[in-house]
Amino acid sequence: MPIKVKQNLPAQHILEQENIFVMTEQRAMTQDIRPLNVLVLNLMPTKIVTETQLLRKLSNTPLQIQVEFLQTVTYKSQHTDSSHLDEFYKSFDEVKDHFYDGLIITGAPLDFIDYEDVDYWDEVCKIMEWSKKHVHCTFHLCWGAYAGLYYHYGIRKRDRIPKLSGIYKHHILKKNAPLFRGFDDVFYAPHSRATEITKEQILAEPKLELMAESDEAGVAIVKSEDSRQFFVFCHSEYDADTLKLEYIRDTEKGMNPKVPVNYFPDDDPTKEPVVNWRSAGQLLFTNWLNYYVYQTTPYDVNAVKNE
């Protein structure tokens, strides 16, 4: 998939080195096709890392995608240079009159914090409400998934102690769903969180479908009955060393973290992790884009408002 991004986005150079086709705005102007318009609300502090991870996963179909990044204005990132945000990110006021085929709401390091105590909670709520009439399909990821289930369905997360960290086996519950085309019956994916919702909470809401779960990690993927909302609690976009870097960070802080489950060979942090989630993660994003965005979105993206 040629991903259309602004010229000089740092992720562009990383992805090109991985032989991933990234198209600049100038080149895209010569193609007479309508790209899918995907907006990413990036709530992670390490924004460039998250940009690269997500763009990598959006890169493997013949579709052209125009990706825009959205930031909150009620809270300014302390870990990303302001010049990067000024050049590559938009505010809600800049996009509120536009329509999008897809929206991705990322996770955020907000374990043990009530939604209403989050600095930008009101702004995120405004964006989620706006998405009902301006976005064809939304992909909520990790904290974004918890926030979405709480805002749209009143389902509240609960703390999980100790923190869930590692690579877990998942079972597909809706094997005929287009989301899982090409998947094996079981797949592996990383988790890194100290919160959870239960299977019973999902099954109690008739407008939601439980799509995949893990015996150890619990609820993994949920979607709305109309397939306009996806809630994903595993991190299939993670790099090989993401959990390793988190483990080192927490160790250096004196937090005495547990070694991530099923991650380091022989549970030895001196050994390099072996990736067993990359292919399933690629299919997850590709299938979402193809079957739930591209195949069903209006040709005129402005028509989203009438859905």
UniProtKB/TrEMBL annotation:
UniProt KW keywords: Acyltransferase, Amino-acid biosynthesis, Cytoplasm, Methionine biosynthesis, Transferase
Reaction it catalyzes: L-homoserine + acetyl-CoA = O-acetyl-L-homoserine + CoA
Pfam assignment, any one: HTS
Localization, UniProt: Cytoplasm
GO-annotated molecular function: homoserine O-succinyltransferase activity
E.C. number: 2.3.1.31
Sites marked Important for substrate specificity: S192
Site positions per UniProt: Important for acyl-CoA specificity: D111
Known role: Transfers an acetyl group from acetyl-CoA to L-homoserine, forming acetyl-L-homoserine.
NCBIfam families to which the protein is assigned, alphabetical: metA
Family of the protein in this entry: Belongs to the MetA family.
PANTHER family with a match to the protein in the record: HOMOSERINE O-SUCCINYLTRANSFERASE (PTHR20919:SF0)
Protein's UniProt name: Homoserine O-acetyltransferase
Taxonomic classification: Bacteria, Bacillati, Bacillota, Clostridia, Eubacteriales
